[in-house]
Amino acid sequence: MNQSVPDSLFYRKQQAFLLSPDPELAALLQSLWPVEEMEFRVFDKGRRAIEFLFTEPPDLLVVDGRLDDISASDVAGLVKSENVYRQLPVVLCLDAADLQREWDWNRVEVDDFVLRPFSPEEVRARINLTLCRAMRALDANPLSKLPGNTSIIQRIQQLMDQEQDFALAYCDLDYFKSYNDRYGFSRGDEILMMTARLIVNTIKGFAGVQSFVGHVGGDDFVFILPVDKVEEACKRIIAAFDDIVPHFYDPEDRRRGHIRSTDREGNVRTFPLMAVSIAVVLNEQARLKHYGEASAIAMALKKKAKENPKSCYVIDRRKD
Amino acid sequence: MEEDLKTSIRGEVLSVKDLPTLPDVLTEVSKLVEDPDASTEAIAKVISRDQVLSAKVLKMVNSPIYGFPGRISSIQHALVLLGFNVIRGIIISTSVFDMMEQAMKGLWEHSLGCATACTIIAQRAGFEDPEEYAVAGLLHDLGKVVTAVQLPDLHQQIVETVQARDITYFQAEKAVMGFGHDRINAWLARHWGLPANIRESMSRHHAPQLAEFYKPMSCVVHLGDFLIRLFEFGTSGDDQTAFLRPEAMKELGFRMSDLDRIMDSLADQLMEVSDVRF
Q1: What is the pTM of this model?
Q2: Would you say A94 and A116 are in contact if contact means Cβ atoms under 8 Å apart?
Q3: Shortest alpha-carbon distance between residue A131 and chain B (Å)
């Protein structure tokens, strides 16, 4: 029960605050995780903790309903009513009597609660689950629900730290903006949803390999595959995209093969149908140490890929 | 009385959750989706031979959940966008016919033949994406499947009316139900959010001159239906000669010589299709 999760659930040490006057609860929580995995900072008064919550927000906040200077739901409300802190997972500790009354969970915005008398296994499992769920929810792109920036950076850094070989591909769409200007945002969103699905299924089609797809935002996507699979993936994505995207244009635009749209200077211009550009960075023999290096190389490559108005991919083969 | 029948049927049609299909294609597709090396193309090819699976796949990919409703009318595209898991889910949840299988086989062959004819016609007319015309042809009699599944007694009545009065299945539908499968198609296609071109040709294949937005596609399906009946490939519920609307020929810019060419190609391709076991 006390062993750490093999290859921890968390990508780094978690800092947690416990707001509770109950020393037994503090001892219990501190016994459930090794300190290098989760460290609890204990406050026996709620008010004192508020400022620290705002200046050094933790990864997890556990609030005891037995606090005598401020109610647990007020603490939760303070955290959850500010967009900057909203994503911080909050777990309440309640006594059975607290549940005699009906709680308005829309008003008390917490992520979970645990009940006295505490079962150590259950508390541990619930808090682990709460943290994992929060990480997933926080970072998902609101449109595609794919993992966003934080997860992308984490995943890449993790692979680098483990010195694994991998290929990192950045995809974006050429002329997406002019499509948006011509057809409006909701049709632009259709394109992004279609592209997300297309990339995900193409990557998932490589069975039995480690892979990852993320959505940086807008028309920027990222995927990770083994080095020997990436070129085939690029070809498949491009073939499918070029095949499908014309169907998202009105018939007359599709027939013409371009759209007329007003550019940023107010001039009417014609733009080709959308294409996909993919820039691929290979990390072999632990050449790259930091996520920043990979993204810098990728951005330079993307410029190169973008010079071609048609769908294309560029693979960085430098071995330095 | 008739009014009641309409609403009750309409209610039943709109409650169609599960259309069964024939076991052979289902078995073949099930094998393919379990094979990690199977390509999307191979699966698309098999699904394209089955009107119910094709309809289900298009219904799924065009549902609002995916975020691009009514945009996809190609099976191949649908498979790329749905992915293996979802396809597997559709296959698993599809049951097979345990009734009138013999009668249904004829309709399956007729639909597949019509899809083949539509491809050839669309190519001859110089249209892009002939595959989409094939889908429209494949689904043109889906309403008949729905009647057979949902309202077996009425279906039986229609079949008996065809024989007793020597009229087309379409006429018999109107006599028994007050409307034909074209109306059921229209409800179904709307209810399932199928793309507008497929929707209109499904509901207008008996009267392509009335098509408002996608007349060419409706005319292709109309002509495909006519030709495949001429070949007596499969059965669409009667053995009458269908009426060919002259407007369809005009719309497609065809002369009789074009029909000859199309029929030659069709004869060749039906030989291949016939090798597909039902």
Answers
A1: 0.82
A2: yes
A3: 27
